[in-house]
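Here is the promised in-class demo. Please do not try to memorize the tokens; focus on the logic of going from shape to residues.
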């Protein structure tokens, strides 16, 4: 006989408890994907038995998670800014910390018709989150990986956010000669020898989206330098970065003649986002 909803979650939680810090949540998310039901179903129908096919699929999901594969890769989806996004192994999995960047961007004093550029868009998470809040912003997201551009375009179409354009570009290489009121980016910023690269979900994510030379600062410095040619007067450049990098980011912003430099902490009270303004 197959498991009930309640017993399936219990068994999976026990199975996963030594391989993840979120065993019960992982089990619930995986089971909901198998059942194609909302979260409330778990509490409304705990005695409901899985079908044989559902049991087999759930067991296979749990075995994949036991080996460390991210839940988002197993289900193919991750929620960001309350938006369901398709994800795959060609891009970073959107993370709650990055919502801090979206919040900061939305708080900036920009016009209703602002032109916005998202560098290294990946799944399109940042661009699409901004688009969901600002229907008149003209938003462009770029990524050097063709598969990421295809993925972000799928997410755009599924969400019906037609005022976003995605294109393939290595940072600014294919961006036409135009000026933006806001440039945002969650670039690679991890050092090559960071021990966290061998832990958790990042083991399954592309290193090129995580790691940068110059102690993690190479891409940040490149963008700060190049963005000066693409920012409108008084335009903003906004980054996510590592929690120990804010001083270096501040310093390079100042060196490149930006003004009004400010760092914002994430929900864990770590320095996470720094923005600055390009003067008139």
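The designed amino acids, position by position:
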């Amino acid at each position: 006989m197959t498991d009930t909803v309640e017993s399936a979650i219990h068994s999976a939680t026990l199975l996963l408890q030594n391989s993840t810090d979120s065993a019960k949540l992982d089990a619930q998310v995986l089971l909901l994907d198998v059942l194609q039901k909302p979260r409330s179903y778990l509490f409304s129908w705990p005695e409901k038995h899985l079908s044989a096919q559902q049991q087999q699929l759930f067991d296979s999901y749990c075995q994949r998670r036991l080996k460390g594969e991210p839940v988002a890769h197993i289900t193919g989806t991750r929620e960001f800014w309350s938006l369901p996004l398709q994800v795959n192994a060609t891009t970073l999995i959107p993370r709650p910390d990055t919502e801090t960047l979206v919040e900061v961007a939305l708080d900036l004093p920009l016009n209703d018709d602002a032109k916005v550029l998202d560098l290294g868009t990946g799944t399109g998470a940042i661009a699409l989150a901004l688009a969901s809040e600002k229907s008149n912003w003209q938003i462009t997201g770029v990524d050097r990986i063709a598969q990421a551009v295809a993925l972000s375009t799928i997410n755009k179409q599924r969400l019906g956010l037609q005022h976003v354009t995605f294109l393939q570009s290595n940072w600014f290489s294919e961006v036409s000669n135009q000026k933006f009121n806001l440039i945002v980016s969650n670039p690679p910023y991890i050092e090559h020898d960071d021990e966290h690269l061998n832990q958790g979900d990042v083991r399954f994510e592309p290193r090129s989206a995580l790691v940068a030379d110059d102690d993690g600062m190479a891409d940040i410095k490149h963008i700060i330098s190049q963005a000066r040619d693409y920012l409108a007067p008084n335009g903003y450049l906004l980054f996510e970065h590592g929690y120990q990098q804010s001083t270096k980011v501040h310093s390079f912003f100042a060196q490149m003649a930006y003004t009004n430099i400010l760092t914002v902490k994430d929900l864990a009270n770590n320095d996470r986002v720094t923005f600055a303004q390009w003067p008139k």
